[in-house]
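User: Could you write out the 3D structure of this protein bound to adenosine-5'-diphosphate? I've included everything you need below.
Assistant: Certainly. Input first, then the structure.
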Amino acid sequence: MAHLSLKSVEKVYGNSFKAVHGIDLEVAEGEFMVLVGPSGCAKSTTLRMIAGLETISGGEIWIGDRLVNDLVPGKRGIAMVFQNYALYPHMKVHNNLSFGLKLKREPKEKIRNATAEVSGILEIGELLDRLPKQLSGGQAQRVALGRALIKQPEVFLFDEPLSNLDAKLRASMRVRITDLHKRLRDEGRPATVVYVTHDQVEAMTMGDRICVMKDGRIMQVADPATLYERP
Ligand code: ADP
Ligand code: ADP
């Protein structure tokens, strides 16, 4: 379990384009932080640097008491959920769920129990023998969420996870994700979350706090009531 800390984090693409200008951000253990801002403001770059999918050009990223700057994604204690689900297309759902644990050579018994637990939580027990192409968008996103959850990561990273779903499914997935976050907190294994979206409803209803970015800088970090308060 861990807090997340960005200290003067910079990103320069190519030789000179500075996409992220020395940002500082503290996300407390168990906190749900939403990143918002116009397209191109570097939300995704920031998330990918935390994940280790993008190198950082300056500064430090800490997860708990570990400086993770030079760690590969698999060693950071993070799990990421993508907009396009990014399921392994040739693997059945149960293999998609358990693949991360298999890579870590966890015992079969533990993998079986963990698969059963997350499929219960996300109600995907009926889907375990299907291939990703046999899933609806909502089902695929629940599997993607299950694949992240099964790793019991310290930090969950979400990159516009609901953008490909219709309005009704988006609403139910919003509730599902916030309920899951609360459940983990209640069970004493709080998940620290960074959630990128351009959807104001998601930001308002899901975030403990919201971080507003613009042009590679953080403009404001506040709780939803403060940020969206009407005069
Ligand atoms: P957002 O997620 O907020 O839409 P991005 O993080 O995708 O923003 O992009 C931030 C800025 O960095 C944009 O100006 C974008 O064009 C630029 N950028 C993103 N990825 C790359 C890349 N691989 N090479 C060069 N520039 C990039
Ligand atoms: P593979 O042969 O692809 O390695 P396994 O049959 O060994 O897959 O199963 C991998 C893990 O997934 C095991 O822990 C197994 O218990 C579990 N598993 C396999 N099939 C299912 C299924 N239909 N439903 C739920 N869990 C399953």
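The helical segments are 43-51, 93-103, 108-121, 137-149, 167-186, 200-206, 224-227.
User: Perfect, thank you.
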